[in-house]
Amino acid sequence: MPKSRRDKKVSLTKTDRKGLSEKQQIIEEIQTCRQKYENVFLFTVQNMRNSKLKEIRTKWKNSRFFFGKNRVMQLGLKLISDEDKSGKLEAAMDLLREQMVGQCGLLFTSETKETVLDWFDSYIVDEYARSGFRATQTVKLEAGPLEEFSHAIEPHLRSLGMPTKLDRGVVTLYKEYTVCEKNKVLTPEQARILKLLGKPMAKFKIIINCCYTAAEFEVINSRDAESKNKSKTSSTGTKKQKSAVVVAVGDDTDDDEEDEDSEMELDEDDNASCDEEI
């Protein structure tokens, strides 16, 4: 039988790569926000959930969030206008860029530092744990009926490893079953069972690490930003200088390691991701 011309294989994995023009747009937006807003905060996220980030963006409509590739955001903070004659802004931006290690984001806002810290300290949301998370408690199920589950889900529960059966149309455990143990890493099956049982163990939280306000740079929650300088200190044999506020500047070649994670930039209109380095 001859092959049909319509029988063509189409790859579903092809995606359009974001080019240099989109990166330049992100850099320009960061520069615009730096001039528009009074304060800039560097933050990290515990137990990342995109839905929660969208909720925060909605509540902070008068501010601007960037959660993208560190190298691109650093370029947006690096270019300083000629109006900074004293050099304070340039020095503060240098300190802020040094703290951009790993997965982190920027918040541009005109709200005061006290308002930002109080709001984010109180914003903690319970979330279901994912695989790889260490269980915070031991969960055991006694043998007997599980009336919260429909009979249609019983095969799925059995596929997850639970000793279940249907007894007169009711999902029933025919023996005691331990879902997880405290301080042990969860498997994908255990994480799914905990979600079905409605037992959240993780907490979504945004941590403010440092900020630039009123022409001053301040470290609020210190990070391991000195890890990027390990190769430099080991080669020179010099002792690292410890400081509560200022962190030693690393080489540009070490910054490439922090850009390996998939990241995205959050703005008011759409979510843009940066897949290449400049």
Structure description:
The protein has 278 residues and is an alpha+beta fold. It contains eight helices and 13 strands. Strands 1, 2, 3, 4, 10 and 11 form a six-stranded antiparallel β-sheet that branches. Strands 6-8-7 form a three-stranded antiparallel β-sheet. It has a two-stranded antiparallel sheet with strand order 5-9. α1 (20-36) crosses α3 (70-78). The longest helix is centred in the N-terminal third of the chain and has 17 residues, at 20-36. Residues 226-278 have low confidence and may be disordered.
Write the layout of secondary structure elements.
Layout: H1 20-36, E1 39-46, H2 50-59, E2 64-66, H3 70-78, H4 88-98, E3 105-109, H5 113-122, E4 124-127, E5 139-141, E6 144-145, H6 154-159, E7 164-167, E8 170-173, E9 177-180, H7 188-197, E10 202-213, E11 216-219, H8 230-236, E12 265-266, E13 271-272
Antiparallel strand pairs: 1-3, 1-10, 2-3, 4-10, 5-9, 6-8, 7-8, 10-11, 12-13
